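Lecture notes, unit on binding sites. The following record was shown on slide 14. It pairs a sequence with manganese (II) ion.
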Amino acid sequence: MRGSVKRLARNADGRDIIVGDVHGCFTKLQYALQAIGFSPEAGDRLIMVGDLVDRGPESAWVVEWLGQPWVHAVQGNHEDMAIRWPDGNMEWGNYAANGGSWMIALDRETQLEVAATLAALPIAIELETEQGLVGVVHAECPTPVWRDFTAMLESLTLSGKRRRALLECAQWSRVRVEMGDTDPVEGVRAVVVGHTPMLKSITLGNTIYIDTMGWRTGTFTLLDASTLCPAGAV
Ligand SMILES: [Mn+2]
């Protein structure tokens, strides 16, 4: 399907910084970015692994952030829920319990604007780096080979049922991390994901888990896509 995969060419000017789940805490994110000298003017780009909204106080700022030309993001399960809300495909109690009260409280027109903005986000990002391709998806790469995942996302003939199963895994699954699966995803240098909160970023095979709960603690893992290590101050 068109738009499910976004491909970013190598960044010749600045750094590509990948950040975990922000959950409506954009001020905390801004402080963290300032601490590493993040500079869009110098060509730095921010790649977000999804779950930009819900829980924190600034979820409604998401439209403004996603409007910046240096911000790129994939859809997490919380974007999925926000997209479904205006269509009546999300149960109120469940959504409120998952941090969706901000969306529920918005007027209908704004809800539709936010949902449309989030629905335009890809499910996966492919990022070219000097050392090879880096894949970004919210929860897990559903297939052993990265290319099979993106091919299915872009398939014109994939059934609705199989597409739903694919997205369920890409946006919601914790199977790999709970099993401690160290099999590398083939065909990419690394896959960077969020979704599963942890105190410290971990790597299983070539999958790097970076949801270090920065939205709660302010300690975001800001991964430099070139080194695959946390970015330092410049
Ligand atoms: Mn998530």
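Take-home: The first helix runs from residue 26 to 35.
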